[in-house]
Amino acid sequence: AQSVSQHNHHVILSEAASLELGCNYSYGGTVNLFWYVQYPGQHLQLLLKYFSGDPLVKGIKGFEAEFIKSKFSFNLRKPSVQWSDTAEYFCAVTTRYSSASKIIFGSGTRLSIRP
Amino acid sequence: DVKVTQSSRYLVKRTGEKVFLECVQDMDHENMFWYRQDPGLGLRLIYFSYDVKMKEKGDIPEGYSVSREKKERFSLILESASTNQTSMYLCASSPPGQGGNEQFFGPGTRLTVL
Q: Which of residues 49-108 of B touch A (CB under 8 A)?
C-alpha cells in the first residue's frame, strides 16, 4: 500500500540549531510533494510544495526541502530554528495523475524548540 | 486569502446523538475534504467532494456521511455518535489540479463524544 513515513515523532532542539525532518514515501512514478505546518492553536497551512523542476524547494519562514527521487525522500530543513518554529509538521504526497483525494499525509512530527 | 470556516471550534455530544459539522469556503473551490486528525495517526480522509452533490469515500468513511448542496458548503454528519469518534475534525478545500493542489484548511472542530 502507498504510504508516507515520518520517522521522527517528536524532535526537541535548542534555538539556532539546524533542523532536518525526514519524510519517505512509497509511491512509484511521478509525485507531488508537500510540507504542511500546524502552529499551536492555528490552522494547518502549506509550508512548501514540489511539483517539478529544481528538486531543492524554498518555502516560507526560511524552510527548504529537497526531493531525492532515488531515495523516495522529501526531507525538510532549516539552518537555524527559532522558538516560533515550535509546531507540528506534516509531509504529504500524491501521485501526479491521481485525483486530489489521493493525497496521503504522514503521521506528523512535533517540533519543540527550547528558548 | 482563502478562508475556510468551521461552525464550531469545540463540541461535546452524547453517544447516539446525531452530529452536524459544517464547513464553508469562500474561494469557489471545486474540491472539499473532511479529515480527522488523531495523535500519531496524522490526517485521515473521511470523505471528499469534487462538485455539488458529488461525494467520494475516503479511507475511513464508516459511521459518517456528507452533504454538499452548495459549492461553498460541505457538511459532515455523524448519524449516531460514538466515543471512538472523539477527535479533531478538519475541513479543507482546494482548486482542481492534476495530482492534487494545495489544500486550504479550516481551524478544526474538536469533538468529544461522552
A: 50, 56, 58, 90, 92, 94, 96-103, 105-108
